[in-house]
């Protein structure tokens, strides 16, 4: 019986068919799938022979070394990383060489630029006659990053992005500002009416059509989906996500924020303060609903209400019961909520981007009106928020899973209470009251999440021949973890 082929806990690997002569890989039997670092991933070719092109930076300490690779696609799979995050990845098959052995493995493609190793070798890629020695580093022949010394170096630069703004109101302030700022930075920003999108569901080449025309691949999607289009808009967003676009706020987070009842349950589970809220289906529970929130005055809200519409203040118990019964008679879904008297018709809108509060404004209702929404005539002014209010807004955004949102707070005697988390906050009021370029900050966030690529420089003849030797390889499918 032959001796087993020993792998160390880290190994040097090569992918000849991809033009990668040396990659330092972590051997991880705790991960089922293997993964290869890839950015600027772009599928191409017909559906029955789909391929994927990607850029690889094999040397962690030298990101200017890059190799463009290509391989046929095997699959697209959802892969859950060690930190619990799930990502939809392209899967290719390629022949890996470690020491004197070469064999085909499946590899998933993912951005590993923050990882120490550009490759993860999972247990599905380890053959039956191989053993892993957890105390040995590089049990097989050592390679070196020196193999890339003659490869072309390309300095990463910001590139123009193709951005889609999903909106049915392309002329409103927020949409226009986002388009204006994006185009001023050299990006292409296109307004897409969600209602005119058609989804073509395909495992390997998902597509979105617009008025019958197949839309191109976008780098980023800014969803500004109206409440009446929430369900269909979420389906369109999920489809764009399958094409590899960066989604500013994903469909699940938007859906949770739009369902007021579910949103309050999420906030409660996270221990975030909010007005006491009650919900019941049975008409026999009207009196209980009123008592659960401390009696009148109280607020009755339609679950699908936006911009203050469908929100009623009932100042007496009798009025509250009448409003509740009327809503039930319309077969409407609604919640009943404690009225925070000390807020005195004022609330605070905080704008959270990437886990930071970037601006805040105080909204004050018109005399005789309790709703402070700007669409109801409310007045916006700049405000300084407390550390507790800042922490509450950030926690609320995180609990809802939103990268960008408006968190509405009430100042109560017991501390800040979250009134609502808005996944498509308007920009006009908060830009004008804070004096900040909010649209620009949103574009900064998008740019930081869509990786820069390299622009080729003029090369010497020697470098040109080296480039030819390292160009995009054929390869077979790989899997990742």
UniProtKB/TrEMBL annotation:
One of its GO terms (molecular function) is ATP binding. It comes from Marinicauda pacifica. Its cofactor is Mg(2+); Mn(2+). PANTHER family: RIBOSOMAL PROTEIN BS6--L-GLUTAMATE LIGASE, RIBOSOMAL PROTEIN S6 MODIFICATION PROTEIN. PROSITE patterns: ATP_GRASP. The keyword Protein biosynthesis applies. This is Probable alpha-L-glutamate ligase. The gene is rimK. Residues 471-481 have a biased composition (Gly residues). One of its GO terms (cellular component) is cytoplasm.
């Amino acid at each position: 019986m032959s001796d087993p082929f020993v792998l160390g806990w880290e190994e040097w690997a090569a992918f000849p068919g991809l033009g990668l002569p040396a990659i330092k890989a972590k051997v991880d039997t705790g991960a089922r799938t293997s993964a290869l670092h890839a950015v600027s991933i772009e599928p191409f070719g017909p559906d029955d022979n789909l391929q994927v092109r990607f850029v690889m930076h094999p040397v962690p300490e030298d990101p200017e070394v890059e190799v463009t690779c290509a391989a046929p696609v095997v699959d697209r799979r959802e892969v859950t990383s060690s930190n619990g995050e799930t990502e939809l990845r392209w899967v290719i098959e390629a022949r890996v060489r470690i020491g004197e052995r070469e064999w085909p493995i499946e590899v998933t493609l993912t951005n590993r630029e923050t990882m120490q190793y550009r490759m993860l070798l999972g247990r599905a890629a380890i053959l039956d006659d191989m053993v892993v020695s957890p105390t040995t580093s590089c049990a097989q022949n050592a390679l070196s990053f020196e193999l890339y010394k003659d490869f072309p170096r390309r300095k990463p630069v910001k590139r123009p992005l193709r951005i889609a703004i999903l909106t049915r109101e392309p002329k409103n302030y927020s949409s226009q500002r986002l388009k204006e700022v994006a185009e001023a930075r050299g990006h292409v920003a296109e307004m897409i009416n969600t209602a005119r999108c058609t989804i073509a569901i395909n495992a390997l080449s998902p597509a979105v059509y617009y008025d019958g025309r197949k839309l191109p691949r976008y780098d980023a999607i800014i969803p500004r989906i109206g409440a009446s289009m929430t369900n269909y808009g979420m389906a369109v967003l999920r489809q764009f996500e399958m094409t590899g676009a960066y989604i500013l706020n994903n469909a699940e987070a938007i859906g949770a924020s739009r369902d007021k009842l579910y949103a309050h349950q999420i906030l409660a589970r996270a221990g975030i303060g909010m007005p006491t809220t009650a919900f019941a289906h049975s008409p026999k529970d009207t009196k209980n609903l009123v008592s659960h929130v401390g009696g009148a005055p109280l607020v009755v809200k339609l679950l699908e209400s936006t911009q203050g519409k469908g929100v009623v203040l009932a100042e007496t118990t009798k009025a509250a019961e009448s409003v509740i019964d009327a809503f039930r008679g319309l077969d409407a879904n609604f919640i009943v909520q404690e009225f925070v008297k000390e807020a005195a018709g004022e609330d605070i809108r905080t704008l959270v981007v990437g886990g930071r509060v970037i601006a805040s404004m105080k909204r004050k209702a018109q005399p005789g009106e309790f709703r402070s929404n700007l669409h109801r005539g409310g007045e916006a002014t700049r405000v300084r928020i407390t550390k507790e209010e800042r922490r509450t807004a950030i926690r609320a955004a995180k609990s809802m899973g939103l990268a960008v949102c408006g968190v509405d707070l009430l100042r109560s005697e017991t501390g800040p209470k979250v009134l609502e988390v808005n996944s498509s906050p308007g920009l006009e009021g908060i830009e004008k009251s804070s004096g900040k370029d909010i649209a620009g900050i949103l574009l900064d966030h998008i740019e930081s999440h869509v990786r820069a690529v390299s622009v080729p420089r003029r090369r010497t003849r020697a470098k040109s021949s080296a480039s030819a030797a390292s160009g995009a390889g054929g390869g077979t499918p790989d899997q990742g973890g």
